[in-house]
Each structure stands twice: as structure tokens, then as C-alpha cells.
Amino acid sequence: MMxxxxxxxxxxxxxxxxxxxxxxxxxxxxPGEKVALVGPNGAGKxxxxxxxxxxxxxxxxxxxxxxELTEKxxxxxxxxxxxxxxxxxxxxxxxxxxxxxxxxPLYAGLPEAEVRExxxxxxxxxxxxxxxxxxxxxxxLGEKKRAAIATVLAMQPxxxxxxxxxxxxxPRARRxxxxxxxxxxxxxxxxxxxxxxxxELLPRTVLLNGGTVVADGPTAAILTNKRLLExxxx
Length: 234
Description:
Layout: E1 6-14, E2 20-29, E3 34-38, H1 45-52, E4 59-64, E5 67-68, H2 74-78, E6 81-84, H3 97-107, H4 112-125, H5 141-153, E7 159-163, H6 171-183, E8 187-191, H7 195-201, E9 204-209, E10 212-218, H8 219-223, H9 226-231
Parallel strand pairs: 3-8, 3-9, 6-7, 7-8
Antiparallel strand pairs: 1-2, 1-4, 4-5, 9-10
Helix pairs in contact: 3-4, 3-5, 4-5, 5-6
């Protein structure tokens, strides 16, 4: 077996108000593997994503390409594991699309020529070539979501973690987003309520509820288990 690119061992997290969001999560993601993270509201999906991004600190172990995630290395490891949040406005804050996508590479200290190369490549990957001078806040929701993915791709991560990327999209924008995600080579952990997207895109599914993993296996087997889905609010 290949060494996991992401490995979560007995991870626990309790919010300051005493709510236990995660109660001993174990999860692994192999290089190139595309995995769905599903579960009802409050299952712990978004908390896990914030922990993987290094924005929260819990108990247990999170390893990225075999290296323990710590406060000292989080910036470096974040370049290998890119997170796309549910609301694209959390990631689009510059005047133009070019500025947004260029922000990460510029902050990393890359030379201008390479920054421009990466921006052009990332926008092409998400079908937004030619959008460089567009105002980010004037984009449609579907375009914003793809632009947010481009901001992460510009850092050339080996793993993508996405939180509800299809939420709020109309059918055409949703189909286009699925096509974009299907063609990306990165390993992918995608949190969603959209079980049709899961069926189309993600061969493996992890079902989370009450802060624990209650099922982990082939998507086809999990999505045809009516009792399992009903029991856990899906």
C-alpha cells in the first residue's frame, strides 16, 4: 500500500462551549484518491476541514505526507494541502481575479514570471482563462467557486480539501464544476450533502455522524445502503 498523503489518527476536538465536535476520528487518504466526506449538519465535517487547514488545534495526530502537522510547519504543509472553503468570498478578497489567484504565489516569494505562469495555468484548469481582469465580486457564484479553486491550484498542492463546493449552484454551474473536479489529478477530500455529486465523482465515501466515522467504504455500497443513510440523516 502507498503511504497516505493525509492520515488522521484519533483526532478529537471540543469547542469552548463544551460541544464535542470530533470524538476520535481515524481517516486516511492515499495519493490521487478522491474521497467524499458526508454526514448530517453538525456531524463534524467542517471542523475536520479546519483542523486539516491548521486553523484549529485538537487532540490526536494529523500527518500530511508523513509529517506531523504543527504550528511550526503549517504554512509549509498548507502549500501541499490546499483548502477550498464553502463560501468563495472567504478566499476572494482582491480587486481582480488575477490578483486573487496571484496572491498565494506572491506571498510565497515566487518571481513575477512564475507567478504569471501559475495564474494562467490555474485559471485554465478551472475554465476561467481570460478572466484575469474581471472584478472578483462581479462573478457569478459558479465562477466565484471556480476562481476560489484556482487560488488554491496556483500553489500547486498535491491534495485538495473542499467544503460543499457545489452548494447553491444551478444545474449548469454544478455540471461544469463536476467536470473541473473530475479532471484534476490531485488527491481530494470533498465534504458535501450532494449525494448525486458523490455518486458521479468520488469512488470512496466516509460517513461522519456525531463526531465519529460510522462508515468508510466504496461509494456504491454506501449509497445503496438505505438503512445506513436513513439512520444518519442522509
